Amino acid sequence: MTMTTTGMYVEGRYVPAGPWAARKIERQVKHLVADYRAGETHEERTLFDAYGTVTDQAAARALLTASIGPKVVFHRLILAPGRRCGLRRLIDLHTCTRLVLMDLGDSLGQRLVWVAAVHRNTDEPHVHVLLAGAAPRTRWPGNGTTTSVELRTSQYALLRERGDVRAAEIRALNGDGTAA
């Protein structure tokens, strides 16, 4: 993975639905918290979600399994604020991830279901996100119904743009314009 020094780096792939969906979820959730490298602590690889409800791998698997889409089990995303973004503290990375994914959900009209963990196994800290393949609608007729989460080029562009904006907001909240 090549990180950018200019702004939010976003990479994504989806895992298609199929008979091994639960196994795919289990393997990816395990990857989120396993294999931490020198310089990382187990606490840094703690799972988190939008609402602070995911506390362990079993909870993450249950959350994602309940939201498998008809075409997509989940999307694997990597969000990496570039050096210019300046976000290095764990709390800043968690906050930025939550805000950016909330922005994405707002643009899709869905309450996104996801789990994530911060990784520091490269020169730049980054966040691995498992975004469920289906999520409840928040607007339009049929409120409360679950529909597929489809990420297109425009959504990846939105993640990059909002990542830069949210990182700047977090830096401003930290005081002198720089993230600690």
What does this structure look like?
- The chain has 180 residues and is α+β, with helices and mostly antiparallel strands.
- The chain has a single domain, classed as BirA Bifunctional Protein, domain 2 (2-Layer Sandwich), CATH 3.30.930.
- Helix content is 34%, strand content 20%.
- It is built from four helices and six strands; from the N terminus they run E-H-H-E-H-E-E-E-E-H.
- Strands 1-2-4-3 form a four-stranded antiparallel β-sheet, with helices on both faces. Strands 5-6 form a two-stranded antiparallel ribbon.
- The radius of gyration is 16 Å and the shape is globular.
- It starts with 8 loop residues before the first strand and ends in a 7-residue tail after the last helix.
Shape: globular
Strand count, sense and closure of the main sheet? 4 strands, antiparallel
By helix and strand content, what is the structural category? alpha+beta
Proportion in helices: 25-40%
Give me the count of strands. Answer: 6
Task: Give the number of domains.
Answer: 1
- CATH topology term: BirA Bifunctional Protein, domain 2
Order of helices and strands: EHHEHEEEEH
CATH-derived architecture = 2-Layer Sandwich
Overall pLDDT level? 84
Unreliable residue stretches: 1-5
By CATH reckoning, the class would read Alpha Beta
Instruction: Bin the strand percentage.
Output: 15-25%
Terminus-to-terminus distance: 24 Å
Tell me the Rg in angstroms. 16 Å
How is the largest sheet built, in terms of strand order? Answer: 1-2-4-3
